[in-house]
Structures are given as C-alpha cells and as structure tokens.
Amino acid sequence: MASSQSRRGGVSLPERPGGRDDSIITKISRSPIVARGKQAAGDAAFVANKLLRSTGKAAWIAGTTFLILVVPLIIEMDREQQLNELELQQASILGTPAAIGPPK
C-alpha cells in the first residue's frame, strides 16, 4: 500500500512475474535489428563525412587551378581581342583595307 500512496491517484499495476519490467519499447530498442540499423546509420554518416571532406578538397584544388591557369588566359584573350578591334578601327579611319584574320 505504500507504493499506491506515493503515486497520488494513479492506478498501480501488479508486479510482473520474474521481477523484470521490460516494456515493448525497451525490447524493440534492444533488438539486434535496431542495433544493426544504428550501426548502418553510423557507417553511412562516416562515409558521408569522408565524401564531403574529399569533395571539398577536390573543389579547392579545382578552384585554385582555375584561378592560376585559366583566368590569366581569359584576360590575355580579351586583351588580344581588344587589340584586334583597335587595329580594325585604325585601319578604317586611315582608309586602308582591314585584314580579317592572320596574314597568309
């Protein structure tokens, strides 16, 4: 009766035989299937983390390479195009026929 007085108005269930009070949630959480699922989720998180890090490293390498090699090439090609346009303008002002393309 002491246990019913400490609960204040709740219904107390009889003790289970064997002294173990395992609920269905406890049984499910201790099952090997759940343990296997937790292990698989942990492995998937590990692989995703490694993939994310390696992808980040690859993106850094590609971006740096692009800045060092490709951007100066684009700038030089733009300068050459501007120089060709300037030559065409000068040729048209002076009245000489403009050569289109490289000389033969």
Automatic annotation (TrEMBL):
Subcellular localization, as worded in the UniProt entry: Mitochondrion outer membrane
Annotated region described as Disordered, given as residue ranges: 1-23
Record keywords, A-Z: Membrane, Mitochondrion, Mitochondrion outer membrane, Protein transport, Receptor, Translocation, Transmembrane, Transmembrane helix, Transport
First-listed, main subcellular location of the protein, grouped into a coarse class: mitochondrion
Membrane topology classification: Single-pass membrane protein
The keyword Membrane appears for this protein: yes
Transmembrane segments: 58-75
Signal peptide stretch: none
A Pfam cross-reference name: Tom22
Entry similarity comment: Belongs to the Tom22 family.
Protein name: Mitochondrial import receptor subunit TOM9-2
UniProt source species: Stylosanthes scabra
Gene: TOM92_2
